[in-house]
Write a structure and sequence with these properties.
The protein is an alpha/beta fold and 280 residues long. It is built from 10 helices and 14 strands. Strands 3-2-1-4-7 form a 5-stranded mixed sheet, sandwiched between helices. A 5-stranded mixed sheet has the order 10-9-8-13-14, with helices on one face. Strands 5-6 form a two-stranded antiparallel ribbon.
Length: 280
């Protein structure tokens, strides 16, 4: 894997998520809380405050956003941060006078994790966090679709005893917690303490994601599928996911596919956003 060279601390990668935002510059990564009510103004203020705290005027900014991002960087919609619709980061930070590139968060993660694959590789990344993000590359080319929005795996409809739900609503950390009437931090605490209801809900979420990933493996025949996100770390989630993948993938397809965790860990999205911005 090629290391992202960052000799200039003014090169900034930003990962905007459903519960937190990471601002990465040089060797520093700072966290800002977000949440479903987060507005563009709140995010802009948070980014500016963190850059000022570091004493940085950026020379390039890569900004990763959960949701549908237009080719010009404008946010069309975001399921986890709905108030970002219409936001245009390049306009919000125009006074910095630097290159600003906004893209989907899973797309950014794939830029980072797949940058050293063979030119003809088929690969994907699936991030299980607040909700589910995904991006894919087929025969060496990004799978973008008609408007560049392909990969919204979390919006796949799933039949459940309670009716049709989005995959997000079964597998995303925010939704698993909400099904128990608690928040994500309390879900993690209860799971660590061995709470039966919390562990059952987590396993159900992991199994549902594993079924979706088995479908992807059977559909795309990928060389590589990268798995990441904080929800993957909940006790039992990854085990249930991998068990479902094993049970429901075609064996030859699964044998041809390498499954691994994101090598860049929690900063994979921010690093990919910066790498994408630097390549423009």
């Amino acid at each position: 894997m090629t290391t992202l060279e960052q000799p200039d601390s003014r090169q900034v990668g930003i990962d905007i998520g459903g519960t937190k935002m990471l601002v990465m510059a040089g060797g520093d990564t700072l966290r800002v809380d977000t949440g479903p009510e987060a507005t563009p103004a709140l995010l802009v203020r948070g980014i500016r405050e963190q850059l000022a705290r570091l004493g940085i005027t950026p020379s390039v900014m890569g900004i990763a956003i959960p949701g549908l991002v237009e080719a010009d960087g404008r946010v069309r919609m975001s399921g986890v941060l709905p108030k970002l619709a219409g936001w245009h980061p390049a306009t919000a930070f125009a006074d910095y006078g630097c290159t600003i590139h906004a893209l989907n968060d899973a797309e950014a993660a794939l830029v980072e994790e797949a940058q050293d694959l063979p030119d003809d590789a088929t690969a994907g990344i699936v991030m299980a966090g607040t909700a589910i993000g995904a991006a894919f590359r087929v025969d060496g080319k990004p799978l973008r679709g008609a408007r560049g929005w392909a990969g919204e795996l979390g919006f796949m409809p799933v039949v459940t005893p309670q009716g049709v739900k989005r995959l997000d609503e079964i597998t995303g950390g925010r939704f698993i917690a909400a099904s128990l009437g608690i928040d994500g931090a309390e879900l993690a605490r209860r799971a660590q303490q061995g709470d039966a209801a919390a562990l059952a809900a987590i396993r159900e979420g992991g199994q549902a994601l594993g079924l979706a990933l088995a479908g992807l493996i059977n559909l795309l025949n990928p060389h590589l599928l990268v798995l990441g996100g904080g929800t993957m770390q909940l006790p039992g989630y990854a085990d249930a996911m991998r068990d479902a993948i094993q049970r429901h993938s075609l064996p030859p397809m699964l044998e041809a596919c390498t499954l691994r965790e994101a090598r860049s860990g929690a900063t994979v999205v921010a690093m990919g956003a910066l790498r994408a911005a630097l390549s423009r």
